[in-house]
Amino acid sequence: MTEWDIKKLRILRTLRDRGTVTATAEALLMTPSAVSQQLTNLARQLKVPLLEAQGRRVRLTDAAHLVLRHAEAVFAQLERADAELAGYLRGDAGRVRVAAFSTAVPALVVPAVQQLRGAHPGLDVRVREAEAAEAYELLTDGAVELALSLAAHAPSVRDPGFSRVPLLADPLDVALPAAHPLADAPGLRLADLSAESWIFGGSGPWSEITTAACEAAGFVPEQAHSAAGWTAILAMVEAGMGVALVPRMVTAERRTGVVMRVLSADQPRRHVVAAVRRGAEEGPAVARVLAALRQAAAARETVR
C-alpha cells in the first residue's frame, strides 16, 4: 500500500491554493527550498510526478490533482475527528459504562441519562443492572467505568484503587397491609413492629440491611417469608403475610393494598454511593455522568 504523508499533502494543497512555491512557503512559515524538498519527497513516495515546469514557475500535474481529490476526503475526515476529539476532551462525547443495583436504575441512572441526552447528545452512557458484588467486579475488571451501590458494599474509602462519591441517603420506610392496626398510628417507630412477621431476602444486601436496622432498633426480626424482588415482597405485604422495610427509591412498585409509613425517630437509611477507579473521576465524560447522578440524587432529596 502507498504511504501517504499528511504533512506533505497539506503542502501540496497549499501550493495549489497559493499558486507559487514562495507564497506557499510564506503561508506555512517554511523556506521555499524546504517546500520544494518536501514535495520532491512526496512525489518519490507516491511514485508519480506532482509538479512540472511552466516558465519560471511550476504547475500541478494531473496526478497531483488526482492525489488532492482523494486527500480532500482525508482532510475532511480529520476535521471531523478533531471536532469529535475536542468534544471528548470536554466530556461531550465518548462512552461511559455504568453498573447499578436494581432500584438505582429507575431512580437515579435513568434521570441522569435523560438529562445527559438533552445536554450532551454525543455522550453514550451504557447501563448494566448488577448486584453490589458484581458491580465492583465489573469495575475492577474494566468492564464498566462507574458502579452504583450501597456504602456498606462499596470499596473502603481507604482502598487505593477506587474513589467513592456519596450520592444519596435513602430513607427506609415500612410497608404495612392497609388493614394493619398500626397503618395510621401516629409517631410509628421501627421498635413498635418488633413482634411482627417480617419479609425480606434470605441472603444478600437487603437481608443484611433489614436485620441491621431492626437490631439497631432493639430487636431481631422474625423472618416469616423470603423474597428478593420488590414485586413479590409488596404482594405478600398486601396479602397480610407480614411487614417489610422498603427503600423510598422504590416508587414504581407501590400497591393500593399497602400503606407506606415514614418511621419516626429510629428511621434507618441506606447510603447510595458511586465508585470509579481512582483517577477516572477526573476524566471529562465520567465527570459529566457523576455530575448528572448527583443532580438526580439532589432532585430526589428535594421532593421528599
Give a short summary of the structure.
The chain has 304 residues and is an alpha/beta fold.
Please give a structural write-up.
The chain is 43% helix and 22% strand. The protein has nine helices and eleven strands. Helix 5 (104-119) links the parallel strand 3 and strand 4 (123-129). The radius of gyration is 32 Å and the shape is rod-shaped. The protein starts with 5 loop residues before the first helix and ends with a helix. The model has no long low-confidence stretch (mean pLDDT 87).
* End-to-end CA span: 65 Å
Gross geometry: rod-shaped
Low-confidence stretches: none
Q: What is the ordering of alpha helices and beta strands?
A: HHHEEHEHEHEEEHEHEEEH
Taken as a percent bin, the fraction of beta residues is 15-25%
Separate helix tally = 9
Number-wise, the strands total 11
Largest sheet: 7 strands, mixed
Backbone structural class: alpha/beta
Q: What Rg do the Cα atoms give?
A: 32 Å
Question: Can you give the helix content as a percent range?
Answer: 40-55%
User: What does the average pLDDT come to?
Assistant: 87
